[in-house]
Design brief:
alpha/beta, 3 domains, four-stranded parallel beta sheet, 21 helices, 20 strands, 14% strand
């Protein structure tokens, strides 16, 4: 028999069919689902009244078996359920809890926009493996708009994959439960991470995005007296361990022991922790900073006088000036590759939203496989939030209780939880790294080895390194001539802004005209096809320009006001919502172009 055009083997398992599904799964995901030896006792397939398959989980309920589909018409049941889901008017990514028999997923795909992406979390690998013996799911498994997370390893990295999608495409993101699936703590946590990321991303764009870009523009114009992280990597010996010194309050407990690590591990000190090291006269091997708004006063201390700075392109301009000639840049995006060249290094947009997270990413980029964390409390310790006792950096946000490194509860907040989640995601993605939490206090970071700093020291003290030599003979990021080429490219971007502004004015008018057509006529009438075609042409001209992507990433304050590249105008109702939003956006776009152009011109003279 067939189901929605796919082959179904009624009642009897077909191992050839399961192999077919598994082969496609392994080809795409590099991993093969495992078959439960007890699957016959756990699950069964029956036939609905209309001939479609019905999946049961035997004994799942106190009253008996759990049926996951309608016993009359699973596809009709799925259609009724899907109609209750609001259809977004912009590009959307769905976190879907539960694969079931795939019928609900297929129905959502039919109902939602054709650019909707589905991340499917299936909590029971053996259930998925079982159903693969009864139906051909190769179309779903290989579908470009569907990403399946079925195995334990896949589920652990699902949040990383979704956050990458969020950072790249800025979609609306929502979680949906497939019927008959129970609440799941891991899935709920993934949804919470997405919500937090969307909120923090919008906050960054609205409050700090422009400042960050102005800092980047300063860096672009001074690369002839700076260095790149890939250049530093060339000088790093293999198997060097690193210590990331964060500014949590527990740093005061064991900072003196850090002296024993000098010459045995590469000491990376975060900007705010530097004053504590200065108090104890500990000179770090390198300092790291990435905040566009953090005061350079944190770094203007004696132990930093001869130090190099691992410097994000969007580090505070005054901090960049303070370390003039000693900045080693990381956090390159595609804009740096366009302006400076491929040697800026890999594009890694997510650094966890904090400087210690950035230090961890730097360790990954340098090929460091053993990382020791200290001062990484991510919680209040004895009522304190930082080791320096300064009140700055204590956000007035909701506090909550989480598990501490010793198993006891500790008080933290949503921001620090997001920092912890970042570490856990990165650890899951880099299983070859040995991450040691020697903080001796604070929140537990899953995936780390919790030891005292003294114990961590004993693991690395037998090897000695001369870290001063790794900064010798570093090649400058650009020559004077190459710097002039970068400036000319920036001037080209300034000219592109004039075109974008002009197109924006035209687009505002066209959106207004089509909006009236949607309200009072029929948007699908052939007489509006020319305007719709012109709308697409003008938008495409804008989107082809690198500087417009730069605006979307930093300069446009309302992240979710930005129209999609393709505006879906399939019905009057859909078109009204889309065009109203687009008209407002294009009305202010010329002003945004002008203000960015002004700052770019200033940067050329900085």
């Amino acid at each position: 028999m067939t189901f929605e055009g796919r082959v179904i083997n009624e009642l009897y398992k077909d191992e050839n069919l399961r192999k077919k599904n598994f082969d496609v799964f392994e080809k795409r995901y590099g991993i093969r689902p495992q078959i439960d030896n007890d699957e016959e006792e756990k699950y069964r397939i029956e036939t609905a009244k209309n001939g479609e398959p019905v999946l049961y989980v035997n004994g799942a309920l106190s009253t008996g078996d759990l049926r996951l589909n309608s016993s009359y018409s699973p596809s009709y049941e799925a259609e009724v359920w899907a109609k209750r889901q609001d259809v977004p008017t912009r590009r959307t990514t769905i976190a879907l809890m539960g694969f079931s028999t795939g019928v609900y997923l297929r129905t959502l795909m039919d109902r939602f926009r054709p650019d909707t992406i589905f991340f499917v979390y299936e909590p029971d690998e053996s259930l998925f493996s079982y159903i693969c013996a009864f139906a051909d799911f190769t179309d779903i498994i290989s579908h470009i708009r569907i990403r399946l997370f079925v195995t334990e390893y896949q589920r652990k990295i699902m949040s990383s994959e979704m956050l990458s999608d969020l950072a790249t495409f800025r979609p609306e993101t929502r979680g949906i439960f497939t019927p008959f699936y129970a609440d799941n703590e891991e899935f709920a946590h993934i949804c919470h991470e997405l919500e937090s990321s969307m909120a923090s991303g919008n906050d960054f764009q609205r409050e700090r995005g422009r400042t960050a870009l102005i800092c980047r523009m300063y860096a672009w114009n001074h690369m002839d007296n700076a260095y790149m992280l890939p250049e530093l990597k060339k000088n790093m010996r293999k198997n060097i361990p690193a210590v990331i010194v964060a500014a949590g309050p527990s740093l005061n407990k064991n900072v003196e022991s850090l002296k024993k690590l000098k010459g045995h591990a590469f000491i990376i000190c975060t900007d705010r922790a530097l004053s504590v090291l200065n108090k104890h006269e500990i000179v770090p091997d390198v300092i790291i900073s990435m905040d566009a708004e953090k005061s350079p006063d944190y770094l203007n201390v004696k132990v930093a006088q001869n130090a190099y700075l691992l410097c994000s392109y969007q580090t505070n301009i005054e901090t960049q000036k303070l370390f003039d000639g000693k900045c080693i840049y990381f956090h390159a995006l595609r804009y740096e590759k366009e302006l400076i060249g491929e040697h800026v290094g890999d594009q890694i947009p997510d650094h966890g939203g904090n400087v210690a997270g950035a230090a961890f990413v730097v360790c990954e980029s340098l090929g460091i496989k053993k990382v020791i964390l200290i001062g990484q409390d991510l919680a209040f310790t004895d009522g304190k939030h930082h080791a320096d006792d300064k009140e700055e950096g204590n956000p007035d946000i909701t506090r909550t209780i989480v598990e501490g490194i010793d198993g006891n509860p500790v008080e933290t907040n949503e921001m620090w939880i997001s920092f912890r989640d970042f570490y856990e995601r990165e650890i899951n993605l880099h299983l070859d790294m040995d991450v040691i939490d020697a903080t001796e206090g604070g929140a537990k970071i899953q995936g780390t080895r919790v030891v005292t700093l003294s114990e961590a020291i004993s693991e690395v003290q037998n090897e000695e390194y001369d870290f001063s030599g790794i900064f010798n003979d570093l090649k400058k990021a650009q020559s004077k001539e190459e710097q002039l080429v970068t400036k000319e490219r920036i001037k080209g971007w300034i000219r592109d802004l004039d075109m974008i502004a002009a197109n924006g004015k035209e687009l505002e008018v066209i959106c207004g005209q089509l909006l009236k057509a949607s309200k009072y006529h029929d948007i699908n009438d052939d007489k509006y096809s020319k305007k719709k075609r012109k709308l697409g042409e003008l938008k495409l001209q804008i989107h082809k320009k690198m500087v417009y992507s730069l605006m979307e990433d930093f300069w446009i304050r309302d992240l979710y006001s930005i129209p999609d590249l393709v505006l879906f105008l399939r019905t009057n109702e859909e078109a009204i919502s889309v065009l109203e939003s687009a008209e407002k956006f294009y009305k202010v776009l010329p002003e945004d172009c002008e203000s960015l152009k002004t700052e770019m011109k200033k940067s050329l003279d900085s």
